[in-house]
């Protein structure tokens, strides 16, 4: 049978963000998989070179709407290392607490999306309702549900008071109980197990070869966690386990994330209990001495890497970052080999992709001419794009809809 | 953690194998190393030695830099025991050519495509494929991460 080429995206109902995928099919079976990324590219690395360090904290926090603490912490850690400033211990604990709360909200968000992708929308409703517990808590601590604005050079901008600590412990109790329920569902519910087992298989060897990170790698038996291997903030002062699985499939990735949540609750309790008194920020110069540093952070999706080069001014010479999804995307092709077409959404969702993170780098447009396109121009551009890139002609279809006044 | 025995072992292994790395290998702190390879022709042997003998079996990312007369590249390599090593090399701006490391790290494809799009580097051995990350209609010969690139250049100024 001849191979059929099916384009998925860049605009497609099954994708949450714009990225272009192509699958080659033999019947229902996927034979090959290609991607065209970059639709979320915003030129953030270039923009960072034109802004001061302080401005960059907030710019880089906005690389991602979910892992915002991950990116801002990784950046400030690198700059603090260049500046040779040791931050107060209390600040390290506060950064760790926000980082773990972020992991809770990210993993619960993923659980909901995964449920939705397999047609189990009750799970989406449940887990997103429970996620509100941690979102409210983050808003109470920082003032925001996302983009907490907690980090600054030399420490953090807001303290976590005793009352807030009580709130965290109360929330952790509720969330722990709910997570136990989800673990029970994931391990006992036949529908979930049957739907996810064996889907998106990737071996341990391939994970190592392709550089897959985070829960995706850990579900294939690679016990890699930056919090353990290359500890930052207060992670060298606490006890926790790195969760792995050996099933190497989407089911393993779900179980790893759920069990990881239990470790996160353990961590949060330790951080709150052991948090030392004292100041939470020290002075940091506006100009940073020349030097360079590489900083790593275990974001909810895996290893987040930032490299900063300073030239002695108040603006960085170079900022380079790599979000975990960028490392994990290369493994999707391997995961989809010989899977069914219907497995594409859940297999992609299982790496918990975040394309705005991946492409990071606000559209830089010229000053001349108008950038405002009319509805008709946008429509035409879309038609031309699909014609040239994918070989699909929507002209006739477009006419049909226009005649109906749509 | 002030214990840097592991890092010192890596340093002595590199310096005894490659004489040109004398004083070019630095331990920045525990778990952070820096190796400076001045000649591009010396890069691959050092890279292979790190991969085959010293367990640097992961690549975190590749950073491209525009530094005066050279383009520089930092290969951020990591081992599974927590050590991260920045391996730096250079190419003159007159001949921005490097060789792909995809035969060792197939996952490095996107990092190398970024060097092509953002710096205009010619990466030998990079398979044909869609560009990343710039749009298909991006003007030819414009490389936004070069220091001399300004956004006005998009209007042909």
Throw out a few tags for this protein:
heterodimer; A: 406 residues; alpha+beta; Cytochrome-c3 Hydrogenase, chain B; three-stranded antiparallel beta sheet; 16 helices; globular; B: 157 residues; Beta Polymerase, domain 2; 3 helices; 22% helix
Fold and architecture overview:
The complex is a heterodimer of chains A (406) and B (157). Chain A has 406 residues and is of the alpha+beta class. Chain A has helices spanning 44-49, 53-61, 68-83, 89-117, 121-142, 162-188, 190-196, 204-210, 214-218, 226-229, 250-274, 324-336, 344-349, 355-359, 375-390, 395-403; strands at residues 4-8, 20-26, 29-36, 151-152, 155-156, 291-299, 302-310, 316-322. Chain A is 51% helix and 12% strand. In chain A, helix 2 (53-61) packs antiparallel against helix 3 (68-83) and helix 3 (68-83) packs antiparallel against helix 4 (89-117). The relative contact order of chain A is 0.17. Chain B is an alpha/beta fold. Chain B has one domain (5-135): Beta Polymerase, domain 2 (2-Layer Sandwich), CATH 3.30.460.80. Chain B has 3 helices and 7 strands, in the order H-E-E-H-E-E-E-E-H-E. The model of chain B has no long low-confidence stretch (mean pLDDT 93). The interface between A and B is large, with 46 and 43 residues.
């Amino acid at each position: 049978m001849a191979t059929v080429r099916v384009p998925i995206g860049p605009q497609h109902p099954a994708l949450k963000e714009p990225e272009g995928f192509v699958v080659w099919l033999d019947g229902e079976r996927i034979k090959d998989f290609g991607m065209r990324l970059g639709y979320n590219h915003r030129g953030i690395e270039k923009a960072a070179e034109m802004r001061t360090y302080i401005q960059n904290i907030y710019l880089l926090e906005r690389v991602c709407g979910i892992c915002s603490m991950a990116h801002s912490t990784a950046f400030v850690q690198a700059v603090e290392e260049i500046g040779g400033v040791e931050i107060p211990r209390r600040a390290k604990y506060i950064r760790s607490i926000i980082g773990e709360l972020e992991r809770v909200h990210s993993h619960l968000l993923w659980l909901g999306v995964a449920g939705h992708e397999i047609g189990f929308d009750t799970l989406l409703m449940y887990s997103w309702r429970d996620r509100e517990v941690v979102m409210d808590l983050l808003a109470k601590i920082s003032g925001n549900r996302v983009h907490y604005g907690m980090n600054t050079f030399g420490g953090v901008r807001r303290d976590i008071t005793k009352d807030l600590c009580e709130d965290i412990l109360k929330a952790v109790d509720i969330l722990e109980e709910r997570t136990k329920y989800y673990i029970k569902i994931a391990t006992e519910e036949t529908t979930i197990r049957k739907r996810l087992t064996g889907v998106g298989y990737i071996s341990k060897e391939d994970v190592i070869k392709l550089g897959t990170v985070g829960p995706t790698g850990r579900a294939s038996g690679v016990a890699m966690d930056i919090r353990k291997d290359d500890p930052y903030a207060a992670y060298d002062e606490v006890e926790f386990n790195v969760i792995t699985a050996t099933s190497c499939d989407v089911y393993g990735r779900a179980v790893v994330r759920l069990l990881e949540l239990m470790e996160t609750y353990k961590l949060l309790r330790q951080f709150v209990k052991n948090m030392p008194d004292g100041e939470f920020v020290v002075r940091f110069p506006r100009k940073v001495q020349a030097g360079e540093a590489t900083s790593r952070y275990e974001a909810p999706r895996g290893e987040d890497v930032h490299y900063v080069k300073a030239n002695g001014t108040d603006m960085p010479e170079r900022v380079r970052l790599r979000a975990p999804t960028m490392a994990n995307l290369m493994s999707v092709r391997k995961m989809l080999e010989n899977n069914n077409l219907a497995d594409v959404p859940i297999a992609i969702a299982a790496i918990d992709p975040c394309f705005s993170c991946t492409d990071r780098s606000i559209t830089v447009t010229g000053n001349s001419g108008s950038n405002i396109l009319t509805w008709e121009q946008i429509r035409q551009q879309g038609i031309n794009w699909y014609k040239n890139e994918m070989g699909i002609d929507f002209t006739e279809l477009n006419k049909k809809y226009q005649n109906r006044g749509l | 953690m002030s214990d840097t025995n592991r890092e010192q072992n890596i340093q002595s292994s590199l310096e005894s194998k490659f004489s040109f790395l004398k004083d070019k290998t630095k331990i920045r702190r525990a778990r952070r190393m820096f190796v400076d390879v001045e000649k591009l022709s010396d890069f691959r042997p050092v890279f292979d030695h790190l991969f085959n003998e010293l367990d640097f079996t992961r690549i975190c990312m590749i950073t491209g830099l525009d530094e005066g007369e050279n383009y520089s590249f930092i290969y951020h390599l990591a081992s599974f025991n927590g050590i991260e090593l920045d391996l730096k090399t250079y190419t003159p701006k007159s001949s921005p050519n490097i060789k792909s490391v995809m035969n060792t790290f197939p996952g490095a494809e996107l990092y190398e495509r970024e060097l092509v799009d953002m710096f205009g580097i010619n990466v030998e051995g990079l398979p044909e494929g869609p560009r990343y990350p710039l749009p298909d209609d991006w003007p030819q010969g414009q490389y936004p991460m070069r220091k001399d690139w300004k956004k006005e250049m998009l209007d042909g100024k």
